[in-house]
What we know:
Layout (H helix, E strand, L loop, with lengths): L3 E6 L6 H14 L6 E6 L5 H7 L6 E4 L16 H6 L4 E4 L2 H6 L4 H14 L2 E6 L3 H5 L3 H16 L8 E4 L13 H18 L8 E5 L7 H5 L6 E4 L6 H17 L1
Parallel strand pairs: 1-2, 1-8, 2-3, 3-4, 4-5, 5-6, 6-7, 7-8
Bound molecules: 2-phosphoglycolic acid.
The site of 2-phosphoglycolic acid (PGA) has 13 residues, from β8.
Amino acid sequence: MAHALVIGNWKLNGSLHLVSTMLFDLQYALRGIQNCKVVIAPPVIYLGNVKQAICDSFIELGAQNVDIHASGAFTGEISSAMLKDIGVKYVIIGHSERRILHSETDQVIARKFYMLKKEGLIPVLCIGETEAEYQEGKTKEACARQIDVIMHVQGSEVFNDVVVAYEPIWAIGTGKSAHPEQVQEVHSFIRTYITQKNANKASLVTIQYGGSVTSKNAEALLAQPDIDGLLVGSACLNIESFIEIIRLAAKQKQVA
Ligand code: PGA
């Protein structure tokens, strides 16, 4: 992987004030940074403001969700074409908060994946095991199941040029990050699993880790060969932490 990929997922946080202050500081701090792609995924209402704020930089725009429909009578929803229209490039889908709190099934997520690919946007497909699955040693099984649902519907080649974010559910927002070596084992499994189904193409899949990433644990995670980047939640709202994580990602890829 030539570049690391760090995505900051603001979740339901932020304000116009945060957009202007954080993005100004971020762009200033990241001048000259190479080897790391940076994506900001704010709440949808701030996408336009973030787009404006990052227009002169290499930072790219991400969204946290998309609807399964292209258009029509679906009050409150946002389509993949609309996201593309305003300059979004990456879209997070399958996040466990949406799976659990909004009852999104694997089938709904597969549909979202399809809509994004059709529009030429990059899905950031979150997968990962529950705490119970982890305790039972079923992590790989859970990840394979979530990948299979999409492959069965759309074929293995749809995994070209996508981002898979491995996010153990028990590690999200808990301060309990997974151990780097365990994450490496799961990422290697995910890459091999996709490769076996789609020979020659799996190297195009970027595999991120997410779940209580901080500026303290980022370096050890990024040192693992199959951790291509990080999906950062709470630590991305702290400008110093987020800048440090991006610097570590860029440095790690320079020495790799
Ligand atoms: P966290 O969130 O970094 O706050 O654990 C990660 C995520 O939900 O993507």
